[in-house]
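2024-03-11 09:14:02 INFO queue: dequeued item protein-serine/threonine phosphatase, len=234
2024-03-11 09:14:02 INFO validating residues
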Amino acid sequence: MEDYVVAEFKHVGDSELGLFAIFDGHLSQVIPDYLKSHLFDNILNEPDFWIEPENAIRKGYRITDQDILEKAVDLGQGGSTAVTAILINGQKLVIANVGHSRAVICKNGEAKQLSVDHEPTTEKESIENRGGFVSNFPGDVARVDGQLAVARAFGDKSLKEHLSSEPDVTVEIIDDDTELLILASDGLWKVMTNQEAVDAIRNVKDAWSAAKLLTDEAVMRNSTDDISCIVVTF
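2024-03-11 09:14:37 INFO prediction written
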């Protein structure tokens, strides 16, 4: 396990923010730990956060990745994917991600994916345009330069010329039809569809119990990757 999780509420002035994230590291736990400590601070310190949160999130992601690359001597050569959710006053949900951890919302029983799975095969053209390549050798999983099985990530200085850290950002308004939000690393999504995950926990009132149910189910289905899960109920 190289995952780190954030799930907290905080008050900023008259506003309430829900901050949720899963950072799935590779090669070490150092960079996901760094993200846990710094990413949200960098986002919230952007002066336009309250006016244009989507732009602030993109800037915060960019600044954090630059910091990680500049500190590569101390932080090492590894990297991390990320999926983050910021809930503003219980009404506006802003999702961002790099990599293949995923955010799924449930409205009226229907699962809706809010993040983008950044797979090397789907971003092959942009990787090649940067001078890299996508290969299934060694192994049977597509990898950037034959090494990394995601097309976007924080860190990974040795691959950065061919690897993006630009997040996809989605805004969702919370209404009376919104039931729950799931954030999870790919160890869950490799063995469960979005709708299966939603169906499994729709009737579970306690968010912690719902998250544990999903992680236990992923283990039961023989998932062999990191499994972290956050459930937010509305």
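2024-03-11 09:14:37 INFO annotate: The longest helix spans residues 53-70.
2024-03-11 09:14:38 INFO item closed
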